[in-house]
Each structure stands twice: as C-alpha cells, then as structure tokens.
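Dear support,

We are seeing what looks like truncated structure output for some complexes. This example has four components. We would appreciate it if you could run it in full and send us the complete token output so we can diff it against ours.
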Amino acid sequence: MGSVWGNNFKLTIFGESHGGGIGCVLDGFPAGVAYDEEFILSEMDRRAPGKNRQSTARREKDLPKVLSGVFEGKTTGTPISCVIENTDTRSGDYRNLIDHPRPGHADYTGRIRFHGCNDPRGGGHFSGRLTAPLVFAGAMCKLFLRSKGMAVGSHIASIGQIMDTPFDDVCIPAEQLETLRTQQYPIINPRAQQAMLDQIDQAREALDSLGGIIECAVIGVPAGLGSPMLCPAEGRISSLLFAVPAVKGVEFGAGFSISAMHGSEANDRMILEDGVVKTETNNNGGILGGITSGMPIVVRAAIKPTPSISREQMTLNLADGKVEPLVIKGRHDPCIVTRAAPVVEAAVAVAMTDLYLEAYGYAQD
Amino acid sequence: MGSVWGNNFKLTIFGESHGGGIGCVLDGFPAGVAYDEEFILSEMDRRAPGKNRQSTARREKDLPKVLSGVFEGKTTGTPISCVIENTDTRSGDYRNLIDHPRPGHADYTGRIRFHGCNDPRGGGHFSGRLTAPLVFAGAMCKLFLRSKGMAVGSHIASIGQIMDTPFDDVCIPAEQLETLRTQQYPIINPRAQQAMLDQIDQAREALDSLGGIIECAVIGVPAGLGSPMLCPAEGRISSLLFAVPAVKGVEFGAGFSISAMHGSEANDRMILEDGVVKTETNNNGGILGGITSGMPIVVRAAIKPTPSISREQMTLNLADGKVEPLVIKGRHDPCIVTRAAPVVEAAVAVAMTDLYLEAYGYAQD
Amino acid sequence: MGSVWGNNFKLTIFGESHGGGIGCVLDGFPAGVAYDEEFILSEMDRRAPGKNRQSTARREKDLPKVLSGVFEGKTTGTPISCVIENTDTRSGDYRNLIDHPRPGHADYTGRIRFHGCNDPRGGGHFSGRLTAPLVFAGAMCKLFLRSKGMAVGSHIASIGQIMDTPFDDVCIPAEQLETLRTQQYPIINPRAQQAMLDQIDQAREALDSLGGIIECAVIGVPAGLGSPMLCPAEGRISSLLFAVPAVKGVEFGAGFSISAMHGSEANDRMILEDGVVKTETNNNGGILGGITSGMPIVVRAAIKPTPSISREQMTLNLADGKVEPLVIKGRHDPCIVTRAAPVVEAAVAVAMTDLYLEAYGYAQD
Amino acid sequence: MGSVWGNNFKLTIFGESHGGGIGCVLDGFPAGVAYDEEFILSEMDRRAPGKNRQSTARREKDLPKVLSGVFEGKTTGTPISCVIENTDTRSGDYRNLIDHPRPGHADYTGRIRFHGCNDPRGGGHFSGRLTAPLVFAGAMCKLFLRSKGMAVGSHIASIGQIMDTPFDDVCIPAEQLETLRTQQYPIINPRAQQAMLDQIDQAREALDSLGGIIECAVIGVPAGLGSPMLCPAEGRISSLLFAVPAVKGVEFGAGFSISAMHGSEANDRMILEDGVVKTETNNNGGILGGITSGMPIVVRAAIKPTPSISREQMTLNLADGKVEPLVIKGRHDPCIVTRAAPVVEAAVAVAMTDLYLEAYGYAQD
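Here is the complete output from our reference environment:
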C-alpha cells in the first residue's frame, strides 16, 4: 500500500498523470471547518506549473472539484473528496520510456513493484502532478489548524549552493509566513532570490537541473502533541515529508548540524516568557522526546534536482540489456524547488492535523 | 499512542527505566526463523552500557527473557515477547528533576503529554534504556532478513567534527558489515577512530557531551519493496529512525548533499551487471519513487549530543517560574553515538522486515 | 474516522446521497487483475434500485467512472478510484427532517457525531446509496478472488418469517452461486420466493416494511487465512458486514444455533477427500481459531426492516422537545433485503481480499 | 497479524498456554486512571478456572504482574505491560495431538497458518488461557470507562436450551450489573440458573459439553461515539468479540430477531426524558448508523460448546490420512460459558475505550 496516510484521520490520494483524473479523500476530517475556497485556490496556484499565476486559465486547469464532505460552506465531518481533471496531457511523449527507464526516476522500480502493469504515461501515479491533491489536502488542514491558532509556512532555504537567510527559529511571526505564502518565490532574502534565479537560468541553459532545501515552520503549536518511543512527532512528520517526490533528507531544528555540537551548546535553555514556557534557542526544532514543546516546529526537507533533464543521458534498455542514449522529451522544470514550498507545507499540515486529532479527538468543539 | 509500530507486523515496546522491567512484543513475526541466541546476545552486548563487553555480568544484566513465540529453537509465528529486568537502578538520583526539567530532555514535554503522571525516575519511558528491547527486536529481524539474503550494518560516520570514511555505497560487502558489527567501535578508518575517542575524552573532561552521525546500510535488498506516494520506503524507515532517542535528522543516499547537485550528477546511471540491474552511483540510496531498486539502502541518522551533561546548567523551576542552576547527577555517557549503531541498525531492520512482509506476506515459504 | 477499511489494502468510500457524487478508492489492490467491465456493471445492476434491470437508463445512472488504477484493461496496482454521479436527487423531500429525526435512522446520532454539520439531504453519508461504491469495490475484489480460485455468493435466507432453503454448507457448487447471482431474486427455493414476495406486497400495502437475512458463502478458500487472538477472520469479516447499513447481527457456520448444541454434535469431524482435508459438517463456517480451514466460509447477516416507512410515526421535535407525528415522504423500498445480497457479498469479498493479501502480499505472482 | 487490536489505543496479547508466560501491553491507555488492584484481581478471579474463587491460592496463580505503565497508584499514559506466569502446566498430555487435530479446535488451521511451527502444548497461543490477559486489559478499561460514567456488565443469556431473563434493554441499572459481576454465576433468574447447572452436570456425565450466549450491556454511554460507513461501533465491537475463543455469532439490540419484525415495530420511538433524548424501545441496541445513541449498548455473543470433550471422537491422522479414534486427555470444562462473561465484557470494554478515545483524544482531562 502507499496512497493512504494517517492514524487519526486518513488522507487517500489517487490518480495518474495522464489518466481520467487525480484527487484525494480526507476521512475523519473535523466537522464545522469553514471552507475558504479562495484560500484553497491560492494554495493550488502556488504549486501549479507555469508562471502567470493570476490567469483564470491556470485556475480552471487545477480546479479541485469537491464532491462530498462540504455542505453549506462548512466541512461535514464525513469524507471530503476532491477530483482534479487531467486536461493538458500529451501521452505520445512518454511511450518510448517503457523499456528505457529514466535515470533518477521510478520507471524501473515502479515496473518491478507493479509487475509492469502501472501506467507509464507521464510518470503515472509517480508523477509530480500527484502533489496537487496533496496541496488541496494541506490547504484543508491549514484551515483546520488556523481555527486552532496554528500556522504553517516555509521558504526556500537553498537552491543549489545558494542559501536564503534561515528562519529565526525561536520567533517566527505569522505575518512573515503569510508574506512568504503570497510572494512569487517564497524567499526571505531578496539577494539570495536573485542569485537562485540566476543559477536556475544557468542550469536550464545547460540542459540540466538543480535541487534545493525547503525550510518549513509551524507556529502556535500546543505543547504535548506526539508520543515518545516508536511514534514521535518527528517520525510522523518525516514519514509524510518523504512522500513528497524527490525528498531525500529531513531534519528538525539544528538537524544534522546538531551532531557536531556539544551538549552545552545544543541544549535549549528553558525560560518563562509572559507566563509561557519557552526556550532561548530551538535546536530541537520544537520537539523533545517526540512531543511538541510549544516552540515553533522547524523542519527542513532536501529535494533532489529534477531527474528529467533535457540533456542526453545513458540508460539501460531493459529489453536487450544494452546501455543506450536517452533524450527525455516533454516539458520539465529545471528546478522544482520553486514550486515545492506549498507541497512541503501541505505534508507538514496534514501530519500536524493527525497529531492534533490524536490528542483532542473529533468531539473537541 | 506511540509504542506500537508497523503495518505488516507490529513491534510494541514497553517499560520504564526504573520500573518492574522493560521489553517488547513482536506480533506477526514470520514462523520458522531459527532463534540464534548467541547472535541476539551479541547484539544486546553492542548496545549495553559499559566497556568490558565480554563480561558475563553484563550479559546477565541485559539478558532478554523470551516468554513466548519461540518453540523448539524456532519462531512460532505467534507473538514473540521478551522481558528484560531492571536491576541496577538508583532512583534517588532523579527525584529532584520533577520541577527542574533538564534542558534538551523530554522532562517538560512528557509532563504535559501525560498530565504529570508519567514515571520520572531515570527518564521513565523516555529513557535510552528502552532501546534495549528495540535492539532485541532488531536482532530478531536481522535473523529473518538474513534468511532472505539481506544484511544490515552500520558505522559511526562522525563524532563531533571528526568523520569516518563513508561506505562505498554501490558495493558494501557483507564481510565489512560483519567486521564492523564485531568491532568495539564500528568505525572504518582507524585514524578517525582515534580522533573520535580523543574528542570524547576532551568532552568528558569538559563535563560536556558530543553528538554524531550513524551511517547504516542494507544489502541484498530485493527490488520492489515499498510504495509510491504516501508510504514510501524512506518514510517507513525514517518514521522508525526518529524513534531512536536523540535522532534529529535522517537522509538517504546523497541526502542533503543531493540538494546542491545538478541533475546530470545526481541521476544514477543504470547498468546491467551479471544479469542484474544496478546503478553506477547510488545517490538515491537504493530507493527510487519510494521503492527499493536492489542497490544497497544507505541511510544516515544525525544524533544530538547527550543532553545530560555533568556541567551546571540553568533551567526553569516549574514550581515557581524562576530560572535556577541545575546539576544533573547520575552516570551519563559523554557520547552515546558509540552505542547507537546497533540501535539504528535495529530500527532499520524492523522497518525492512515490515516492507518485506508487505510484499510477500506471512505465507511465503 | 469511519470510511476507510483494511489492513493489507485500503477501501475508502466517500459521498453524500444528494451531493456532487459518491465513489471509492481501492489502495493496494493487486496489479494485473483483468478489468471485466461487464461483470462490474452486472454487479452494480444487482444493487441498483428499480426492477427493470436490463434498461440502459438504469446502467447510466449508476455507471461507475473509473478515474485511475486501470490501464490497458488491467489493474495497475496503484489506487483504483471510481466516481458515481448523483443524478436523480429530490432534496426538497428531506428538509423537514432536520429537527424531526426519523425513528430507526441515524438522523439524531449523525447530528450529535458531526456537531450538526453533516449533510442531511437524503440521509447524506448515511444513505443506502453509499452501498453502490461498496458494490463496485466488491466486484473488483471478486475479480481478484476469482483469479485465485475463490467465489463469493449469497441468497436471501429469509424475509420476515419466510425462510429459504439454506446452503449445503459442506458443498456449495460455483454454479449455484453464479445462478443465484444472475437471478432477479437470489433465492434457492422458488416457493419461498413467492411467499417472500407476497409478504413484501402485504407490508407495502400496510405502509410498513420488512427485514430479512442474507446467507453468504465463499468457496475455494485456501486454508490458513486469518489469525488467532485479536484479529480472527470472523472479526475481520464481521467488522465490514456491520458496515452494511441495517445489519444488526452476524453469525458464522451454525452461528447462534451452535450455542444450543452439544460439543459432540458441534465438532466438525475431519476427513480426507481426494487428498484434501475437509470436514463432514461445517458448523464452524469454514473458520477455526480465527483461521480459514479450506471449507466454505458461511456467514449470515441479519438486516433490519427499512426504517423509512410510509405510515405516520411519532418522533421527537428536537427544537422544542415535543413528540410529534412524522410522515416520511419520498420513495422507499418496503424491503431492502432483495437488494442487499450484492452488498453483503461485496463486504465479504473485500474482507477476503484483505485476508488473502495479508497472507501472500502484493508481490505474489 | 492477529494479536494487536485498536485504532486509538493498542492492545497486544502474547503468550502460549505452556510457555514462559502470558500477558498483554496496553499502549495509549489514558494517563491518570487510578489503579484499583482489588477490582482487577476480582475480575481475574471471575474468569479463573476452578470453583473456590475466594482462595488465595487461586489468586496467586493468575496474579497479573504489572511491569510498567503504573506509577504511584495511577496509570502513567505510557504502555501498561502485564505478565502472568504459567504455573500449572502438564505438557505431556498434549504431545499426541500434533498429528491428530482435535475436532472443533484450531489444531489443523494453526498448523497450516504457522507452517507447523506453532507451540502445540495446551493449545499454545490458541488456548483459552490467553483470555486472562484480555480480562486484565478489560479490567483496566472498565476503570477508565467508570471514570467517564460508563459501566459494562453481562449475564449468561442461555446455556444449551435454557434461557435467562433478558436485560430490560431500555433501563439497566448499574446496581444490577455490579450484582451480576459479584455473583458466582452471572444469571438474573435463579430458576434458570438451577436449570443451567443441571444441564451442565448432565453434559459432564455424558462426557460432552454445552455452549451458550452471553448478553452484555454498556450503560452511561455518551451519544456520538463511532462512525458511519466502514467503521461503525458495531463493527468495532464485533471485531473484538469474535476474538473471544468460541464466539460464532454477534448481534446488537434485537439482533437476528429484528430481521423478522416490521419496520413499524422495529423503529425505536424517540422521547425526551429529564431533558435527555431516549427511545421507548431499544431494538437497535444503542447504536444507529454506527454511532451510539446514548441508550444502553446491548450485544449478545454466541459461544460454541467446548470442543474438547472427554468422549472418544474420530479424527484424521495427518501423518497417514486415516480416520482414527481420538481421546482428548487433560482437564476440560464441560461448559466455558460460566467463565465467559468477564471475557465478553473485557472485549466490549476494550472496544468502548477505543471508541471513546477516538472521540475525545488522550488530552481530554
């Protein structure tokens, strides 16, 4: 299995890139959450391909059609289902790839996993297009989390070698997250943004691609979500972050850097601020012993460079075992990181909703 | 919930550091796996505190008592339960900590999560001692995986700033993993080992602690384990790696470094070697699209420095809201990374068993 | 939660009676199963309201639109999603019911459960219409089970006081199940059928309704499916049978009658027949210790009379606490048992698929 | 898998009849529940074999040793683990049974399921003895439910053909449940009790056995627990009731009888009593649309006669395929129904706790 996630509510995602449609179902989503269509469409837009995000044409293309679970402007508590049509498909481009698995893609592993039966067109169920329903689900979860005083946001921490200014991990204002959400590129430092865009242009010209890192934060988190031992908050969140295509690493707080610190430096000192327990640093990323501390949750996801590059590559012909040149046709982003922020946020928002519902149940007012 | 893990078999871990005992239950573990007690005890020994690992005394202390699930030298297929006694407990040391949460520990978050009812003695259910039953479970899973041609091993990739030679990720011999397993310190490069031990000594003398990174590999993995979308192999493995206390980051293959590569560099080129599909590099760590490729799985876990340090620290007195000095008494390792390798391997072995059983079921011969 | 089921694959059902559409997702369904559309439509037809089952109009109405998971005539192994439009809805009929919960319906409990937010039109998510996607899922599972040599079938064991001839529980020919499947009414004894139809007519004339019992069988079941203790095959199957609306009792083999037997009578004597272990009787309904024995699984589900009756009833006005007369408008079957057989079979087929996949995994040939 | 149950907390049961011990783990059990040892031991006593229930000797035999999860008289919220020693084992009796599966037992199905590796001594993991940890878990859950105003109780509704007076299903006083709990035989009607005991004596003398029915009730249930569609309260409860060995049927409210009613008779009319919504009848057993209504939950479980009878039976010799006489040695109850009430109650109490936690979460006060 693979397309259902959650312990305390369930997200199911379905669809193939060039099939009859893609979509998702949210089962166990709380009742009574106001359905803010404008917000949801703006989230869908952040992920959508192409630049001119205000165009109506774009919106129609990735317009989520909600079939159930919303009634008179509010969630019903019964399954929310959403279907997004596949419109602009050019399946002809991909036929050649069945025997020529693209390097860095799931063409070969998918073939083994599904006995050669999976839909290869446009990557099928493996397509990055499947992140559209994830973003829809994340938008719904953000609406729920907002009703509980939480907000999820992110920025592009790096593209290639270029790094953005990191979050101030002990104090991330809601306004900053909202500003990043509405920027064309969610980057804190404008100079970093220019350097990143330059790098992407160079990669495109070189028929190559680039990866990067998304840094995501959740603020307003109540202390006490998550569990020790086998199901810590980090494990719950990471299990869904690795579901974002191309993510190969996940770290919380100081993450891999904490491994090079001394304890006296890494330990976050506790203080009381306006009657609230906080820490002066946040090297643990808002989670201690698998349980949220009330500090911002800070998590970074490493995204590999788009494996589909325009440059000729060598690959194996599975039919005859020979290594042969391959040119991947079709339209491919030289850097998906610029569109990855809402997807990473969606994964985190879904995981946070699951953690919240574990603590408070569906009957909480 | 938090102490049960698994979709296709279930691991349950229970116990408190100073309670009546700790242990685990493995439900759905395959029938007919030979119970190799010597191997299991050797794994327990790798994790056990203290240096003189050959001593009988040590073995008795962490001796797993198997109550069920093993009959006439083989697993029965019914739940394997194991209890480990708590013997050497000195609860007096920890009483003072209830109102003085230790920085970097779960004292505060545990108190919120469990409404102040959890056992605080020795860290209770949060104690690193709970990794003992995890190592037992991992040892059982290694026996199963071995019967399917797989092996799990690891080395200390770094302690503080000192790095070991990394695995050759396209070819990791079983002998290397076994050698590392039986070394006092699982480090590939002897010079790195000396530098690491020196750093630990310095940290101890400074009443401080150090963190590090464990690099773990699984070899002999069949292609086709795991799933695309929401339950990828990386997500399954990481969800359990974050259950290892002090892990704050997890990465596969080139991990965070892949985010700074170009696609032309990151893409692993496929080849045929002795009739087997392989890749010339392994930047994806043996997993593509959430599914194993047959290449070695390579995963790294970042471990924070032991939060219990001997040096005086400031912390919050939860009773009166004042920041006060705290001296943590008791015996604490200045660097748990030297004992973390078998624990990380255990988490990976348990996750691999779950993935294998999803693919082949309990009825596979 | 409530609309996701399964351990080894997942069925999700969504939709409201008068909403934008209903449907289901099957995640983890095996790859390579031939998609037999004619069979699926014939199953949908068995459940569909109205009598004239051959009409094209009817087929169009409940036509399942498969959006994903089927490619070139076979299942892909990725999620199968199916949407069924709601066409013939007359929401005006039900507006009055919000403050006047219908006796025997979930109007009141649904209101409490979902904080008054659930869609009340036509019963919303509680509507019997939601059994249509269950029948679709069951039809898919029947195709899979058929490829493994299994068949699921049923008959109306009773309506009101009138009983059909029971299955010969030690030998149920596949032909009998197929004959029942294609009959207008799945009843073995023609005289019982006439008496049942007479009773239904009388109930309709009395503005009342009738219940009944469906007896369902699975043949060709391999021995060894299911588990002892907490997840026995009976428990798995019953957990889904109670999801069929109006089911209030489930029994296996001799069921409640076995409680009045002596052990010497109830114990099924084992024999060898053509090299296969069988039993001379089948009082245990093909399941012993929670595990299938290879004998036919025989299970009965008790279905209550349609709670929507045309006759005036008294109910509580939730707005003012007064007991008031209620007349339920709209079209209601006086006996849903005649349409329940494919739904019960679907629940059993889904559960059997889950049990099979637990044993053999997705990688079985 | 089979020995882990629960969505919102997890019960794990382990052990074999003649192994090193049996026990259970409760993960996710709420923190802060007072541990009432006397109550727990009294529940264990109700299930324990033998008659002289007040004897200290008996108590020591099935004494649950709690290893974790209870601290200073209250539950900690971390896993509660309990081990019960196996003391009085006579494995010699059962050796003969490996090739001679006992009719009505799981000997054959267990052999297939576990590839012949399961422990056959005393029924191994299939033994009725495994209900002891279930009763422990149920007792813990009853303590929790009590703290929320709920009570679970039962009586022997029938043994063989003799029936007890049923519960008054619209009003079951807590005192009645407590009285039944402390009676030697939980039977309402003393004359029925005498007739039942007579029947058991006759069965014993005839070297035979008898089955029966347990009727169980839960009172004080809040409205709104459970879910529509695939995970109704009936399905959750029944999935665990079928885990009680020998249960072959489960029905709620009027159960199978409701199938012979008219709708006008079956529909429970709603009324307001002291400001609380109730129904004048309770044919739906306190559950409508899969959701609790606030009325008592009434459920009956049909228990087959003990398959181990002293009388000679024919069975198959699996070694040579011949049908041979078998005499089952050892001590066997001619009717386990007299000890089944606390086990059925335990299953229901565990299921109710799961349903409650789904609604209210672990963070509810």
